[in-house]
Design a protein that fits this description.
Largest sheet: 9 strands, mixed
CATH topology of the largest domain: BirA Bifunctional Protein, domain 2
Number of domains: 3
Bound molecules: adenosine-5'-triphosphate, magnesium ion
Number of helices: 16
Structural class: alpha+beta
Helix content: 25-40%
Shape: globular
CATH class of the largest domain: Alpha Beta
C-alpha cells in the first residue's frame, strides 16, 4: 500500500480525550476516531489490525473444532424474558421497539440467541458436542464508556458457545477453549493470565478471566495472586484464609458514647482512641428495594459482588441519605446492628471473631462500645463479605496474597443448564431419556485486545506493534520523493516485498524526512527501510526494526533475506 493512497491521519498534538497511552497512540497514529461517547470508527490501519487479530482468533477456534456462524445483532425481547435476563442485565442492554411495537434488543451477548437456535436443531446426543462461535459487533450501554476501545458502547467480540451431553465432555470442551485462549493471546504477543472470576449475571458454576497484567492505570481489574501456589482470582471473587480462632475476651456491658462530629472510621477511631479493627462498619444497601445491612470489620472493605451474591439481589445500590435515616433512624455514619428493625443483617465472619466491639448507635453522633454478636443482635446470615487484601492468607495454601492490576481480554464461563433449561434446549441420551444440554460461553474482546496490547508495546516515540497484528510488516521510507534514485529503489523493493506476500507500506508522501520518520515511529510498523543518499552510495539501504535502537546497512540485493531474518527474530 502507498501512503498517499490510503488514509493515515496522524496527529502531532496530544489528545485531551485520551487518558491511557494506548488510546492516545491509536488516536494520534490515525487508527481510530470517536463518533460519540464509547463509539469509535476504525480507520484503515485499525481495520487491518482488527482483521489480523480476528484471523488469529478464527484460526485457533477452528483448530479447536468450533464452527463459525453469524447471528443477528437484533433480537426479540421474548427469549431474554424467558431466561430472566431481560430484567437482570438491566440498563446496559440496549432496547428498542420496532415499527410494530415489538420489543427488541441490540445484543450485548448471544446466549439466548444461540440457545434458541440449538433448541430447534439438536435432538439427540449424537449431534453433540457442538461449539458455535462468531466475531461480531456488540452493543452495551456501558455506564462509564472510557479508555477508547477498552470500554466502548459498541465493540467487536468473539463469542463462542459450547453444547455438551455429559459432564465429562463438557469439561473437555471447556479445556479446549482455555487452551485455545492461551494460544490466541500468545500469538497476539501477550502472556494472558487465567484467573478465577465471579459468574455474575451469566449464572453457572465456574468462570475464568484472561488478564493482561499491566503496571499502568489501564488495569480496570484487581487480581489477587498467591505467592506460593497457583491461586489467582479477580478481587471480586477472591477468597482468603481467615485468621486463626482466638479466644474472645469476657464480654462487657454495652455502653453508649457520644461521638460528636465523628462519623467516618477515621474520625471515630481518632476520637475514641481505638484501632479501626475494634470497630465494625454497618453499611446500608438497597437490595432490589429492600434494605440490608452489611457488617465488616472497620479496617476492611466491603466486597459488593459478595454482598450481591449473598443477598441474591439483581440490583444492589448504596442506600441514600434519606433511606439511611428512614431505616436506621440516624443520619449516615451512625448505623449499627443493635436494635435495627426490618433490615436483614449480613455479617462477615471476621466480625464474629471480635468481642466487645464498637458500632454506630442508630442515633445522631452516638456509638456503642462493648457490643457482642448473638448477645446484642442476631445475624440474618454470616457470610464472607470482605474484600481480599494484600497480605491476607491464600485460601488454598499457606501462602500470602498479593494484588496486581490487569485488563480483562477474554473470559470463559461454565454456564451449565441455565439457558438450555429456560429455552428448552434438550437432547435424548442413548437410553432415550431427555436432558437439558450443558453449555459454556467464551468471549474475547476483538477490539479491546489490540488496544490492550499497546499498553505493553510502545515507547516514547509511539507504537511498537508485535508482528502478528501489525497493520503492515515493513515500511519503506524514501528520504526524498524528488530524488529518482530514492524513488526507483523504493519502488523496486516495494514490488519485491509485495510479490513475496509481505505486507508493505510505502511512504510516498512528498514530506520532509523528519515528518516521515516521526510518523513511522508513531504508527509502529515492525521493520523500516530507509532509502537515502549515504547508504545508496554504497549500494545499500538502512534497515531498522522498530524495537531496535540502531539501523544496519543492507545491500539492496540482500533486502529480502534481511527482512525475513529480522521478522524471524521479532516478537
Ligand atoms: P468487563 O468485566 O470488562 O465489563 P465483561 O465481563 O462484561 O467484561 P463479557 O461480557 O464476557 O465481558 O465479554 C467478553 C469480552 O469482551 C471481555 O473479556 C472483553 O475483552 C470484551 N468486552 C466486554 N465489554 C467490553 C466493552 N464495553 N468494550 C470493549 N470490549 C469489551
Ligand atoms: Mg461488562
Amino acid at each position: 500500500m502507498r501512503w498517499t493512497q490510503t488514509y493515515i491521519p496522524t496527529l502531532r498534538e496530544s489528545q485531551s480525550e485520551a487518558e491511557l497511552i494506548s488510546h492516545q497512540l491509536l488516536l494520534r497514529g490515525g487508527f481510530i476516531r470517536k463518533l460519540a461517547s464509547g463509539i469509535y470508527l476504525y480507520l484503515p490501519l485499525m481495520q487491518r489490525v482488527i482483521t489480523k487479530f480476528a484471523d488469529i482468533v478464527r484460526d485457533e477456534m477452528n483448530k479447536a473444532g468450533a464452527l463459525e456462524i453469524t447471528m443477528s445483532v437484533l433480537c426479540p425481547a421474548e427469549i431474554w424474558q424467558q431466561t430472566g435476563r431481560y430484567e437482570t442485565v438491566g440498563k446496559e442492554q440496549m432496547r428498542m421497539k420496532d415499527r410494530h411495537q415489538h420489543e427488541m434488543l441490540l445484543c450485548g451477548t448471544h446466549e439466548e440467541t444461540v440457545t434458541s437456535l440449538v433448541a430447534g436443531e439438536v435432538k439427540s446426543y449424537k449431534q453433540l458436542p457442538l461449539n458455535l462461535y462468531q466475531i461480531q459487533v456488540k452493543f452495551r450501554d456501558e455506564i462509564r464508556p472510557r479508555f477508547g476501545l477498552m470500554r466502548g458502547r459498541e465493540f467487536i467480540m468473539k463469542d463462542a458457545y459450547s453444547f455438551d451431553a455429559t459432564e465429562e465432555s463438557f469439561d473437555q470442551s471447556y479445556q479446549k477453549m482455555v487452551d485455545a485462549y492461551f494460544a490466541i493471546f500468545r500469538r497476539a504477543g501477550i502472556e494472558a493470565v487465567k484467573v478465577e472470576s465471579d459468574t455474575g449475571a451469566m449464572g453457572g458454576k465456574a468462570a475464568h478471566e484472561f488478564m493482561l497484567l499491566v503496571d499502568t492505570n489501564a488495569g480496570e481489574e484487581t487480581i489477587m495472586f498467591c505467592d506460593k501456589c497457583e491461586y489467582a482470582a479477580n478481587v471480586e471473587k477472591a477468597e482468603f484464609r481467615s485468621a486463626e480462632e482466638t479466644d474472645k475476651d469476657e464480654s462487657k456491658p454495652m455502653e453508649p458514647v457520644e461521638t460528636p462530629g465523628a462519623a467516618t472510621i477515621e474520625e471515630v477511631t481518632a476520637f475514641l482512641k481505638v484501632k479501626p479493627s475494634q470497630l465494625v462498619k454497618t453499611l446500608i444497601y438497597m437490595a432490589d428495594d429492600k434494605p440490608v445491612a452489611a457488617l465488616v470489620r472497620g479496617d476492611r472493605e466491603l466486597n459488593l459482588v459478595k454482598l450481591k451474591n449473598a443477598t441474591g439481589a439483581i440490583d444492589l445500590e448504596m442506600a441514600n441519605d434519606e433511606q439511611v435515616q428512614k431505616y436506621t433512624g440516624a443520619p449516615v455514619g451512625f448505623a449499627g446492628p443493635v436494635g435495627l428493625k426490618d433490615v436483614a443483617i449480613y455479617v462477615d465472619p471476621m466480625v464474629t471473631k471480635l468481642s466487645n466491639f464498637i458500632v454506630g448507635a442508630n442515633e445522631n453522633e452516638k456509638h456503642i462500645l462493648n457490643v457482642n454478636i448473638d448477645r446484642d443482635f442476631t445475624a440474618t446470615e454470616v457470610v464472607d463479605l470482605s474484600e481480599a487484601a494484600p497480605g491476607d492468607g491464600c485460601p488454598r495454601c499457606e501462602g500470602t496474597l498479593e494484588a496486581k492490576s490487569g485488563i480483562e481480554v477474554g473470559n470463559t464461563f461454565m454456564l451449565g443448564t441455565k439457558y438450555s433449561e429456560s429455552l428448552g434446549a434438550r437432547f435424548l441420551d442413548a437410553d432415550g431419556k431427555e436432558h437439558p444440554i450443558l453449555m459454556g460461553s467464551y468471549g474475547i474482546g476483538v477490539t479491546r485486545t489490540p488496544q490492550a496490547v499497546l499498553e505493553k508495546y510502545h515507547d516514547a516515540n509511539g507504537i511498537v506493534w508485535p508482528k502478528s497484528i501489525a497493520p503492515y510488516l515493513v515500511e519503506i521510507v524514501p528520504v526524498s520523493m524528488d530524488n529518482e534514485s530514492h524513488t526507483q529503489t523504493a519502488e523496486k523493493l516495494y514490488e519485491q516485498l509485495e510479490a513475496e506476500g509481505i505486507d508493505v507500506l510505502l511512504d510516498d508522501r512528498p514530506e520532509r524526512p523528519g515528518v516521515k520518520f516521526k510518523d513511522a515511529d508513531l504508527i509502529g510498523i515492525p521493520v523500516r527501510i530507509t532509502i537515502g543518499d549515504k547508504a545508496l552510495k554504497q549500494g545499500a539501504v538502512e534497515m531498522k526494526a522498530r524495537s531496535d535502537e540502531k539501523a544496519e546497512l543492507v545491500p539492496v540485493e540482500d533486502v529480502m533475506k534481511a527482512v525475513r531474518e529480522v521478522l524471524d527474530r521479532l516478537n
